[in-house]
Specification:
3-stranded antiparallel sheet, single chain, 7-stranded parallel sheet, 2 domains, alpha/beta, Arc Repressor Mutant, subunit A
């Protein structure tokens, strides 16, 4: 085989996966135009990537092998997420103890802790850990457990047992959806169990969720609104929603 062909294919595959992360779906025709190759060649690339479990071919294109990745979700509603994370970080004191559950907004919180000293963090989030490890003033404990790539989190009995060993002042949770009727929800049972354990071990539990999560329902309900201290969200809530939520918990709109 011509090594040039192999290199060119590898470069195309890398770019295809990068675009898939950004766009969520791709068409054969647009990829063929982008790379200046035939649609037959692109279909061959997609077939090989599908065989490796990296994507799923569709009629005329491809989509991610899993639901929307955390890297895609990280790019959504970024301004609101940064404001929410900053408001959460303002609650953290020097020498504080904090649990941080997996999620895009909760991971942003760690970036806002620059300047704090002696803060102890327990987290099951690989994203939060990656950020925290670069800050020498933070003490970080990463739970063990089964790694779930789509949420960049560690879950399962090992993670839950690790969390049970600690007591913290604050816990910050993420969610796939929240509402008055269903409370906090997530797509995966294991993620809900980890979040519930964190809430049990913290004096205060805050949900960090942008307004797009309101009235959305994941597969599993894991905490009622009355089971948390409050919600930090943004001003995009529907009219009257904040009032309804405040009948059950505190609501901080940023």
């Amino acid at each position: 085989m011509d090594p040039t062909v192999t290199v060119e294919r590898a470069e195309r595959e890398h770019e295809i996966m990068s675009r898939l992360t950004d766009d969520g779906a791709l068409s054969v025709s647009s990829l063929a135009t982008q790379f200046g190759v035939s649609e037959v060649t692109i279909r061959g690339d997609l077939r090989l990537l599908e065989q490796r479990g990296l994507l799923v071919r569709t009629r005329g294109g491809a989509r991610p092998a899993t639901s929307k990745s955390i890297l895609q979700r990280e790019r959504l509603n970024t301004d609101a997420k940064h404001r929410i994370a900053a408001a959460a970080a303002a609650m953290v004191r020097d020498e504080d103890s904090v649990m941080i559950e997996a999620g895009t907004t909760t991971a942003m919180l760690v970036r806002q802790l620059t300047g704090r000293s002696g803060v102890q963090i327990v987290t099951n989030s690989a994203l939060a850990f990656t950020t925290a490890r670069g800050n020498p003033t933070l003490s970080v404990i990463l739970t063990g457990g089964v790694f779930r790539a789509e949420s960049e989190s560690f879950v399962g009995p090992l993670a839950e047992r690790a969390i049970a060993d600690f007591n913290t002042r604050l816990a910050f949770l993420g969610t796939d959806g929240f509402s008055v009727e269903r409370g906090l929800t997530t797509r995966f049972v294991e993620g809900g169990q980890v979040a519930s354990r964190m809430a049990e071990r913290a004096e205060e539990t805050w949900l960090l969720a942008d307004s797009s999560k309101f009235a959305q329902a994941g597969f599993v309900s894991f905490l009622p609104l009355a089971g948390i201290t409050g919600i930090i969200t943004d001003g995009g809530l529907p009219e009257g929603a904040a009032g309804e939520l405040r009948e059950h918990t505190r609501v901080l709109v940023v």
